[in-house]
């Protein structure tokens, strides 16, 4: 899967070398960092956050993304069969072909996660936060906070290797706004996800985690809201007990994610099929 990153230039060169490619505007639609399967195949009554094509605004960025996704030769998603199989099948029906590939979780593939990010970013972080953080009003450690949590909490300034932290045996839950990449990293870590929803598709992702898969708990909603301390403590205490079943379901989904990217797993099969179909496409044109 890591080799997919090297396909950009060859695909672009191949695409540009043909005067009549399969679709003039798009070859492959990639949703590696943005999950769109659920909103596209939402159940009745749910909120759709998927950008829809508007005839009145054919060149609008959101409309164009949705239009190209539907018109493209194929779509690649950072997901896996055990998590979103019904949505994958629905999406195939929606676009009228089977070139839809779930090849995730991608956080389980590629280079060592310890090499990710800028290890020197800590030089920009301090008690007052960066200038950008100060301007935007976030990222600043409140005065006295470190003293209040001394001996029972740890404050890390700078770059944090989140994937490694989530896979540590001491971590049992993950407070997240439920963006798709964070959702997958939490699943891979086998931890319960405490959803603090902010915007966009996060609400749909939380519904998948909490209502459908049973691996998460809602604790708060809204960018301007703050969870009640007592309510948050109660939710964590209840969900962390074995009787709640959330921890067991999170561990079970973790194993399914690991199996998906193992030899013979659903994501590896989809990746093989994707490469095979690309080969056929190249021979055709």
Features:
285 residues; mainly alpha; three-stranded parallel beta sheet; 6 strands; elongated
Tell me what the structure shows.
It is a single chain. The chain has 285 residues and is mostly helical. It has twelve helices and six strands. The strands form two sheets. A three-stranded parallel beta sheet has the order 1-2-3. The protein is elongated, with a radius of gyration of 21 Å. The two termini are 25 Å apart. Mean pLDDT is 74; it is low at 32-36, 42-54 and 111-127.
Concise synopsis of the structure shown:
Helices cover 43% and strands 9% of the residues. With 285 residues, the protein is mainly alpha-helical. The longest helix is centred in the last third of the chain and has 19 residues, at 266-284.
N- to C-terminal distance:
25 Å
Structural class by secondary-structure content? mainly alpha
**How many beta-strand segments?**
6
Which residue ranges are poorly predicted, with pLDDT under 50 across at least 5 consecutive positions?
Answer: 32-36, 42-54, 111-127
Radius of gyration: 21 Å
The strand line-up of the biggest sheet is: 1-2-3
Largest sheet: 3 strands, parallel
Mean pLDDT: 74
Shape: elongated
Query: Helical region count?
Result: 12
Helix-strand pattern: HEHHEHEHHHEHEHEHHH
Helix content percent band: 40-55%
Measured by DSSP, the beta-strand proportion falls in 5-15%
